[in-house]
Amino acid sequence: MSNSQLGVHTIAEILSEPETWKACVAELEETRQLQSLSLTIPKGAECVFVGCGSSYYIAMVAANTWTILTGEPARALPASEILLFPQCLPKPCQPVLISRSGHTSEVLEVVGLLEDQLHLRTIAITCGTDTPIEKLSTHVICLAAADEKSTVMTRSFTSMLLALQGLAAERAGNKDFSNSFHRLASEVGVQLDGIHAKIRSLVNQHSFADYVFLGQGPFYGVAQEATLKVAEMSCSYAQCFHTLEFRHGPKAIVGPETLVTFFLSETGNDSEVSVLEEIKNLGGTTLAVTNSADSTARKSSDCLIELSLDVPEAARAAAMVIPGQLLGFYTGVAKGLNPDEPRNLTRVVMLEGEGGGARRAAT
Ligand code: F1P
To answer: Tens digit of pLDDT for each residue in 194-218?
Structure first.
């Protein structure tokens, strides 16, 4: 298979993200589903966003956004934590289940536990149609336009994230945030070719031994997702930390063959850029993804993606994921791998047998 035939579904889905966002936002506005859903969430309940893999990282960004916009507590949990340690659930809580396929066994078991044993009304978001999660949850947001052929999640990740950020904005009565999604989609649509070319060139000019992704606030979940994309699509060793945490030991691995990617926030820019400068001075190769780069960030980045988006800070998260998706894609292709068929992975993790706890994955 020639390189041009590798990952045809995955790259098409990545490059379709701005248009997919427009379609999903338009449908959510037309149905007014987020407005009505936001009214079903009990006052004082802590939102618990739940998922597996990429969907757990959506949960991280969504929980952080929820608290930023509403001032109410929220947290992200992998489905397995609720299955194995159900006492970790806060009370009262509003569960929000995230699953692109709507078939993931751990998520379905959690819905059953919450609805049938704890008598909690759940909200689910999926890209599948006519799925088990739709039958089990009380409320369902279905973003069929964001579904994918590929195994790895890309446009489904960013589209479900925007929908959940939109739910938080409705809860907060923050119309400016919701309205910013239109500008986000059009501005990213204009910039996508440039981002695409920069990341492809970065990969083609280097051969990295390992990868580190750093982020704070809503961009920590973005860093986690970029880490997973590089691991899934290129079978490379990748780690993720809160940016300032990297100083506390993990920076020992830094060298020219390590690519350290910084997803820079606006709120913590100065502190995060000082880490970027430090890592550059240690000899690391650096990629910085930011909305607006100061002079220190410019001189400390081997590759700089500057988005200049006219949207609130947390709304930039979906756009900031894309360089990480492209990095994983082109690193995999450079290694002769096919991102459409990632090694060892299936599109959905379906577990054999019944009952809780960890069980063998179906082959
Ligand atoms: C989530 C997931 C993905 C992973 C792989 C297997 O499934 O774990 O995060 O990349 O595709 O499925 P879902 O519950 O969101 O369908």
So the answer is: 999 999 999 999 999 999 999 999 9
CA 125 centroid distance within chain: 14
Query: What is the value of pTM for the model shown?
Result: 0.96
The 3-state DSSP class for residue 39 equals coil
Q: Is the CB of residue 97 less than 8 Å from the CB of residue 133?
A: yes
Say how far apart CA 74 and CA 62 lie, in whole Å.
9
Over the stretch 73-99, which tens digit does the pLDDT of each residue have? 999 999 999 999 999 999 999 999 999
Residue nearest to atom 2 of ligand 1 (CA): 53
Output the CA 347–ligand 1 centroid distance in Å.
6
Is the pLDDT reported for residue 301 higher than 90?
yes
Of all protein residues, the one whose alpha carbon is nearest to atom 12 of ligand 1 is 348
Which atom belonging to ligand 1 lies closest to the Cα atom of 56? 9
Ligand 1 centroid vs 267 CA: distance in angstroms?
31
Domains defined along the chain, listed by start: 3-181+343-362 (3.40.50.10490), 188-334 (3.40.50.10490)
Rounded CA-CA distance 181/205 in Å is 34
Please choose, from the candidates 227, 201, 217, the residue with its C-alpha nearest in 3D space to the C-alpha of residue 305.
201
Ligand 1 pocket mutation pick from 104, 158, 345 by most atoms within 8 angstroms of CB: 104
The CB of 151 under 6 Å from ligand 1? The reply is: yes
Euclidean distance between CA atoms 67 and 117, whole angstroms = 28
Orientation of helix 155-172 relative to helix 175-205, angle to 10°: 150
Three-state secondary-structure class, residue 335: coil
Distance of CA 55 from the midpoint of ligand 1 (Å): 6
Q: Which residues pair with 98 in a beta bridge?
A: 125
103 burial (CB, 10 Å; 0-12 / 13-18 / 19+) is middle
